Amino acid sequence: MTAMRQLVGEVLRARRMSQGLTLRDVSGKARVSLGYISEVERGQKEASSELLAALAAALDVPLSKVLLDVSSLLEVEEAAEAQIASISSITPGDVSASAA
Predict the structure, then answer these.
(1) How many CA atoms lie within 13 A of 63 on its CB side?
(2) How many CB atoms lie within 10 A of CB 65?
(3) Is the Cβ–Cβ distance between 17 and 52 less than 8 Å?
(4) Pick from 2, 5, 1, 71: which is nearest to 43 by CA?
(5) Is the torsion defined by CA of 63, 4, 70, 29 positive or negative?
(6) 44: closest CA among 68, 8, 98?
(7) What is the pLDDT of residues 2-50, one digit of tens each?
(8) Which of these, 11, 26, 35, 60, could form a disulfide with 69 (CB 3.0-4.6 Å)?
(9) Cα(48)–Cα(52) distance, rounded to whole angstroms?
């Protein structure tokens, strides 16, 4: 499973890039170091709720929307993992019986 921090980073990066903003732009607006934002976007650092709020404000998007986007990605990932788990529980006997 992808770490939650990676999903948060993916959402923040996608939002920033869709607005044509650089890390420097967001850094200045959020008053957070460029390097730290970069680490958050790459999933290397866990963002606090205060940092998430500052980044969402800098991106001019409600924090609830950022979290909803993260939740949607997590839902897709969990569904894919559940499907993979159900496929890997199939035994060779199950396959030949269903093919007949």
Answers:
(1) 10
(2) 13
(3) no
(4) 5
(5) positive
(6) 8
(7) 789 999 999 999 999 999 999 999 999 999 999 999 999 999 999 999 9
(8) 11
(9) 6
